[in-house]
């Protein structure tokens, strides 16, 4: 867990972890504490009180990014950093091996459509650089990596990454589709289950060289107002 690792590495720092659910570990470093809270609610922290804010795998689940970024900007100290790490679920292919009717891509399209009915954007990670700039952050760093879906790459490391990414999606495919398709799009649960049979079969094939992009984005609160204006 990142919070514990950072707490161990920087014992002089005060680390706060926030989650919607009470899933925090029982044993943590003495300088780490957790809160069960919603980051989309009003933040009660004083201005200029944090050195670093880290958000991971949240892009598709935040309705009001300008508000969240505004609050992050307010509580960060001048010179402090904010970092996002998010997978964009958009599926891509460079060699034409992804068929037009590729069912995992269809699944992603349906999830995006269902989540949009709640005001959420499954591909929101693609917007982080522009939103950070609009919020006033500077010195932006944007690192993008390809995450293969399945062990199709020839590169050994990418093959391992692809195996893990496929396993995560395969094991969680019902959990990530059921609510968007039923509550968002009005499908019956039985219809979702039938659709997922084809998705699971397609996921196990290695003939489709499909990947998604993983975005890591850093932005800094200016040290001075003049730096912000420039």
Automatic annotation (TrEMBL):
CDD domains: AdoMet_MTases. GO terms for biological process: methylation. GO terms for molecular function: methyltransferase activity. The keyword Transferase applies. Coiled coil: none annotated. It comes from the Eukaryota. Keywords: Methyltransferase, Transferase. Belongs to the methyltransferase superfamily. LaeA methyltransferase family. This is Putative TAM domain methyltransferase. It comes from Colletotrichum sublineola (Sorghum anthracnose fungus).
């Amino acid at each position: 867990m990142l919070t514990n690792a950072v707490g161990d590495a920087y014992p002089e720092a005060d680390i706060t972890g926030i989650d919607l659910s009470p899933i925090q570990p029982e044993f943590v470093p003495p300088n780490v504490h957790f809160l069960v809270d919603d980051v989309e609610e009003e933040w009660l922290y004083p201005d200029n009180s944090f050195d670093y804010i880290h958000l991971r795998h949240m892009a598709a689940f935040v309705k009001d990014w300008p508000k969240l970024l505004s609050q992050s900007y307010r509580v960060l100290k001048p010179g402090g950093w904010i970092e996002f790490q998010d997978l964009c679920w958009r599926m891509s292919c460079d060699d034409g091996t992804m068929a037009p009717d590729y069912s995992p891509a269809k699944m992603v399209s349906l999830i995006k459509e269902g989540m949009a009915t709640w005001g959420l954007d499954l591909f929101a990670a693609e917007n982080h650089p522009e939103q950070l700039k609009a919020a006033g952050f500077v010195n932006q760093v944007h690192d993008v990596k390809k995450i293969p879906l399945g062990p199709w790459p020839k590169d050994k490391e990418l093959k391992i990454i692809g195996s893990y990414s496929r396993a995560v999606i395969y094991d969680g495919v019902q959990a990530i589709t059921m609510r968007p398709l039923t509550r968002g799009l009005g499908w019956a649960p039985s219809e979702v289950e039938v659709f997922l049979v084809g998705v699971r079969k397609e996921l196990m094939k290695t003939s489709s060289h499909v990947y998604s992009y993983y975005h890591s984005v850093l932005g800094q609160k200016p040290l001075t107002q003049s730096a912000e204006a420039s």
